[in-house]
Structure formats: C-alpha cells, structure tokens
C-alpha cells in the first residue's frame, strides 16, 4: 500500500517497505527542523558538558578538604582550607550559572524549533486545496497542529543535551573501566546483548503503540471538535447520550493505548535497572573470585564495581528520552505525511504577471472530474467577456458551484484550461488571482475578532472609513451599529450572536471592500430577507459596474441585474442567452422564471 | 501505594552502595567462597528488589493515572454537552479543546510523576534533616539557615510563575482556536487569497506563546540556579565550621564525613524541588482551567420533578415571551419583547421579519436552546421548563438554517432524532425532503458523509437536514428557513410533499419568501420584538405595509419592484 502523504495514515502495522518509507520522511523532517538550530545545539551541548564537569569537581574539592585541608588546619595552617572552600563555592556558582544559562538557551532553541514547525505546518495546510480539507476533515488537521505538536514539544523539553552528556558520561566510565580491568569490561560488554534485545523489543512495541496513540488521540479530537461545533444540532436531536457513549469509547481507546505505552516503559525501565544490577553482581562475583585467588587487589575491585554501577546510572534518563523520542517520532510520521501532501491546486512555478486586469474569462474545452474519476462537468466551452454579469441557474447539483469554483481556482479542471484575460489560471500567482477573483459563498464564515476585522479580511490594509462605506453599500451599516460595540463587536465563535442573514451581509461587505475584477456570488443572498436582498442588489449595481460577475442564485430576482443567463443541468449548459430572450422562449428557463414569478405572490 | 514503592525504590538503591562498603570489609578479612556467593546474592537480591519497586511504582501509579485522566476527560465532555448554547457562543472552541487535551495530560503527568516525586523527595529531605540534626545541631542549624532563603524564593516564584503558566496555557488555547478557525473557514480564506495573511496572524500569536514560554524558562532557570547553588554555598559555610569544630576537638572526622555524605544525598531532592514546583504550578493552572468549565453553572437544566406529556398534541403557545442575550448592553431593549403566539395542534405558522429581528432566536426558545428571560413557552399547556430537556426535544424537532450534519452515514444522520425507525419511515422522510439523491451516492444511504456534510452541496445538505427533522416525527416541527438553498423546482416539490406532513403536525416556520409562507396556515409578523400582525398571508399582504415590505417583491399594485440601474 502506498504511504504517500496522508494516505493510510491510520495504518498501525507497517510492512518493511512502508516502514522504511515512513521512517525516511519523518527523519527527513527531523533533520529539517534541527538544521537551522544545529550550531546552537552544539553550543548547548558544550554548556552541559561544562556544567557537568563543574558539578563533578564539587565532591572532589570536598574530598580534598577532608583529606588535605583538614589535617593542615589541625596543624594550624588554614590557607589550604580557604583555597578548597573558595574553590568549592566558585565551581558551585559557576555550575549554577551554566546550568541556568543552558536552560534558557535550550528553551530558546526548542521554542524556535516549535515556532518554525508550527508556522510551517499552518502555512502548508493553508496551501492545501479545498478538496484535501474536505476529505481529511478539520479535526485531523487540528489534531496534527495541536496534540501531535505537543508530543514533539515534550521531546524537546525532555532535554536532548542531557542525553548526550549521559552518553558521554557512560563512554568515559567505560573507558575508565577498560583501563582498570579488561575482564570486568568484558562482562559489561556481554550485558549489552540482553540490553540490545530488550531495547529492540521496546522499540518495536512502542512504535506500534505510539502510532495507535496518535490515531486514537486524533479520533478523540475529531469527535470533540465536531460535537462542539455542532452543539445546537446535538442538543436539538438529543444526541448527547449517544455522543457521550462514542466519546467514552474513544477516551477508553486512547487511555488503554496510553496505559499500554506506559506499561511497556514500566517493563523496560526496571529491565534496564535489573540488567545493570546483574552485571554489577557478576563483576563482583568474578572480581571477588580473583581477589580470593589473590589475582586482584581489593581496591581495584571496589573501583570496578563503582564504575560498573555508575555506568548504568544515566540509563534511566536515556530510556526516558528514548521513550519521548518514540512518541515524538510517531507524531513526526503523521506531520511529515501532511507536509508531504502536494496542493492539488499547485502554485505556478513560472507565473505570468497579470497586468491591467480586465476580467475576461474563457473556458477552453474544460472538463472537470473528481479525483475518483466521477465526471461532474463534461467538456464545454464558454466565454465571459469582461464586464459582463452572468446569472448561473439550474437545479441543485447541476454543477453551478463547481463551475464557479473553477473560476475561483478552488479546483483545477481535469482537462482544458480556464483563462483570465488570456492567461491560464494555473500560470497566475495566488496573489494576482485572488486580487482579481473573489468568491462569496453561501457559507458566510466569520472569524473570531471584531466585525470590522471580519470585513477587512477582504482588504487587510483598509481604513475604518473604507470598512464603513463598504458596509453601507451592502446595507449592513445599520445593524452593525446596533450591535453592542458597533464595528468593534466581537462576533466570536461562528458568529453565534449574529444572525445568518447578517453574516451574509458582513461577508458581502468583505467582498465589496476587496474590490475584485471578477466577483463570484455563490448563493450569497440565500439567507437574506427580501428588503436586505433589495438593498444588496442596489449595492451590487455600484459594485458590479465595470466588473465581471458570476451570480448563482435560486431566487431569480438576480436575473434582473444580469446581462446573460446560463442554465445548467447535469453538468451541461443547456441554455445561454440574454434574460429577456430566454424568458420569452419556451425552454427550461422560461418555465423556471414563470414558476418563480408565481411563487412571489 | 506508588509513593511507598517510589520511596522504597530510592531506599534500596541507596542501600546497595552502603551494603557493598560493609561487604568489602568482610571480604578483606574473611575470604571464603560462601561469603562471596552470599554477597553476590545479596547484591542481586537488592538489585532485583530495586527493579521490582520501580516496576511497582510505574504500574501502581501510572496506570491509575490514565484512569483519572480518562475520567476527567469524560466529565469535561459531559459538562460541555450539558452547558447551554449561550456558553458555547462565548467560549472559543480551541480553548475547550486545549482543556480537553493538553491540560488533562498535564494533570495526568503531574499526578503520576510530579506528585510522587514531590512527596518522595520531601520525605527524603525531612529524613535527611533529622539525620543532620542528630549528627551535629550546630552544623545542621547553619545548613538550615543558609538554605532558608529557598522558601522565600519558592513562594515568590510560585506567585510570578503561576501567572505566566496560566498565560501560556491560555495562549496555547488561542492558538488552537486560530488553527480551528483556519480550517473551518478555509473556503473564505481561499476565496480571498488570505492564506499568507492568516499565517502571519497565526505566527504573531505563536510568537506570543513563544515569548511566554521563554519567560517561563527564564523563571525556571533562575529558580534552578538558586536551588542548585544555595545548598552548595551552605556546604561551603558549614565545611570550615566543621573543620574548626574538629580542630577544637568537638567533633570527629567520621561524623563530619557522615554529615557531608548526607548533605550530598540531599542535593538532588532539593535541586529537583525547583522543577517539581514549576510542574506543580503548571498542573495547578491546568486544574484551574478545567474547573472553570466544570464549575460553570448550567443555566438551562432539567426540572427536579419533570412533568411529562403522555400524548403530545402539539399546541405551542408563547406567552408574553421576552428574551435578550446576556451580553446585550443595558440600554438596549429586549430582542424579543413580549411575544404572544398561539399555535393550535396541527396548525402551521410562518414567522416573518427582517434580518436580525429575532426569528431564529424565537425558534431556539421553543426547544430551550436559549431560555426565555421573561414570560413562558408552553407545550400542550405545560411550561417547557417543567419538562425534561430530553422529552421536550423529542416532541419538537428542528431544521436549522445552517444544516449541521455529522460525520456518519446518511441513514444515521436522518434518523438522528428517532433512531430505530423503520426503513419506510426513512424512505418517506427522504421522499418528503426530495433527498432521493442519497440513494445514488456511492454506498447509498450507508454513504458516510464528511464532517458537517462538506462533500454535499448546500442544497443537498439542507434537504438531509430537513429529512432529519421530518423523520423525528415530532409533535411540533420548527423549521428555520428550511428551503433557502433550494432551487425553484426542487423547492416546489419539497413544499408539495411537506404539506402532507404539515397537515398533521404543528409547525413554526421561519420564512423569507412568499413561497415558503404558503406552506403555513397563518403568518406572524415579527417587528421590534413583538408580533405586530397575525393572520392569513393574503389578508396581511393586502392590509399590512410592513408585511408587504418584508415579504414581497411586488408593490401595492402587484407590480414587480424592479431594481433600476
């Protein structure tokens, strides 16, 4: 099975090939996020080693005090005492300083890594196409950007430098043991065999378990987010209990894989301790035997045993670090998958600049099919001259929105080209395209922040006057003033306090202020009452002057401001002419228009 | 239990070197193979015990820790579902999510790691100090006095760090909110090409969090400095004092050695108090954030002794109902200001009014998604506040304007309000909502639709949501502009089918178009928070100017109001 991007990301047991593939990409990501801070990592390593050395010298100075300064003091000479005690204080303070400095330095490094990764992931998900978001679900994107990043943060917090200093410490101890007594060293080497197998066992099992943790945690988040955003429907249809049951199961899944990981570590960690202690016992046995034979001095044996013991001391820290690494690694597997996803609507590599914008749109033998092969729009041609206002009508599901989305480049056609002023949309930079083409959809999403901020999304640098005048133009000014803080009212989550009609007015103002060459309105007035709609239409007259417009509306009142009507059915254009001509004819539109006229009374 | 295991684990670890030392003495004098074997087994045994204690600690503390975490998580979710819609309007969902995920695992880690170590280390410190005082009260007092600033530093740290820890958790929640909105609003962001704008905004917030985290690290580093240096300074002060005592002949070298060794052993527990303290504070503010939600009073609750309606007829009455949002400014009049409306069983009433007049709010009052601030809503003569929410919402089904669907099969989405309905009921509901397209989806009615039904078109989603309300077979249907996304043809078909349902069902329908109004027997006009007109559509359109203004595209003479260029 392919492991490209987010495909099969919930698969737990991977075969060799898949494993290699996934490991390669997560290691690559790890390398990429470490690269910019590589030098600083070395510096922090140096800091750790310095501080450890300083710390180690403390006991040595105390020993010197007792062994040398004390007898000297007893003899009446205090100078040595001053030296050792002074030296002790100095090293202690220096050690404290280096540690404190290291902590701040390391925090800066890990925060920079986190910040870089956060931003990169955010930017990348923003670049991914709508199609990706529709299939991947928002909850998963959120899980990748919250809980997965959390586990990477945990790894960074667990202190990689301490691990390296631990390894160094073990290395030095091993060398000391080797020079002291080679056979004890050999015993220690033998202990590496069970150590290796234990670690392999731990690695294999945790890899699988941590993968399960990531999947379970993402599911938990997906369900949580969905029930919170849909809380009204949850309540209205009494879904609470059923939700609670589902959530309980998900929580239990997550808990049990979590407990599993913890228990694995609960075996691994004491396992390491035991291997260490057994090794010490063997060193003692073998050494003691030789002491009895008279082959070994007792002092050497004591040192051997102490070295063997301290060799295993940093092991627990190493194990803990390794554990965090395993956890972070499975998060990296998932994140690298998302980062590997290519936008199905890629940015132009060699963009053509779009100079003076006119708004002439041309569909040239365009066909559109979903990635599963289902054809939504069979091959067609259409030409929309600059400045023309088109009404796109037809039954729901006829493909009107899809056609509009092709102009807004939410999708790319599967064949043929869509051109704006003679340039293939795929050849335009995103900036140029979005400046030229703006789409207002039925779903008038408001971001948390003030009303003014939501309007200025269409033009971030807009002044307050511009914001107000655009709101006035679409007839939103009055109701905005009646809000608690006027334009500074926080709309908060999904515009809970603003009615859906008002939301549509705000998103209209947003489009108005963006001042595009081509404006697409996809059912943008569906929730408006008739007076507001009239107001918007009045605003549209100003707005649409000199612009190209594609208006999709079920209420045919829009037709009155259209130069041309295009009727679609089953993805095909069946009628295309001036409104008056179509109304006077006997086709589909004439029927629709009559039905609509009748419905007005 | 786990703490005991942790302490005994420490003790066994401490015991091994001590035992080894005494062993060497015997080894030197009395070297028989038996003694050696005995010694080896003693070391093995103690090593084994150490490992077993670590194992016990991990299994005894950490596994229960996951149960605690799971329990808290379930409790939080249950509470959030119980809390009224007004709460959710106020709280950004990212803040809720960060509580349910990172805060809870923080609490778990503290319970299973921080707390155990804190107790074990404090215990070790107390035992250690007792030993120190028993060795030499003079040296111990000096040691103790020099160490005492740590208390003050600890308290000061606690105060400052608490604020910052809380800030960082809140900022992480804000970041989660930004992430959530960037995903839910992806279409709008794309439509305006604001991807990089949003990224910059996000980066700004992320930078804020980074700053706070760095502040935290700075505080921790400072604390760590004091907690690791002050004990050393204390050592440096008592050491010459000890030497002087020995010179004076008041103390033996052996005693000084024991004293030094014990203070060395205490070094790590004291050092670690610094980070244990910060971890504890982190956990504490996570607990605070958790309880902020848990302690929120649920304003819309079930009555203590709920009444029931055995055979609901569906008589829905609004009696002098008023309503205002809790955060509306005081000088503003109530949004709903004394609404009186009686809907007889089987009758359907259309609710008309300009955008923002409070129509949707009225529909939400009927199912207690929001609570009236004055007057009452009665169903079959029973105040809806006297019914359990569960029962009330089984009598009244809603179709929302924004048709929230859940990531589940079409079947489950439609049968949400009445699970266990028959296939015929399901088919009928789909038929009424003209949602026959569902059969043509890849897996028919078992097709899983994306979250919020994203892979369906707006019109399709609306029809599924309508089918859902119909399939609930309620006594009262509340439809909030149920056909807004439908084209004229489909709308006409849905209306025809809906009429049969509405004959038997009480209905309150928010409408913007005359065609939807035609579904209803009567029309109520909502204006300035009151029902200012009530009657038949044809009568009102002839007699009421405001009504005509709101609903009609035709002027008084019956001519279309053309938009003039």
Q: Which class do the helix and strand fractions of chain A yield?
A: alpha/beta
CATH topology of the largest domain in chain A: Rossmann fold
User: What would you say the CATH architecture of the largest domain in chain A is?
Assistant: 3-Layer(aba) Sandwich
The CATH superfamily of the largest domain in chain B is known as P-loop containing nucleotide triphosphate hydrolases
Give the topology string of chain B: H per helix, E per strand: HHHHHHHHHEEEHEEHEHHHEHEHEEHH
What structural class should be given to the helix and strand makeup of chain B?
Answer: alpha/beta
CATH class of the largest domain in chain A: Alpha Beta
Shape of chain B: elongated
User: What is the highest CATH level, the class of the largest domain in chain B?
Assistant: Alpha Beta
Q: Number of folding domains of chain A?
A: 3
How would a crystallographer describe the biggest sheet of chain A?
A: 6 strands, mixed
> What distance lies between the first and last C-alpha atoms of chain B, to the nearest angstrom?
83 Å
Helix content of chain B: 55-70%
Number-wise, the strands of chain A total: 10
**Relevant CATH superfamily of the largest domain in chain A:** P-loop containing nucleotide triphosphate hydrolases
> What radius of gyration of chain A results from the CA coordinates?
35 Å
Instruction: Report how far the terminal alpha carbons of chain A are from each other.
Output: 60 Å
Most extensive protein-chain contact, per-chain counts: A-B, 178 and 179 residues
Helical fraction of chain A equals: 55-70%
Show unreliable segments of chain A.
none
Rg of Cα set of chain B: 36 Å
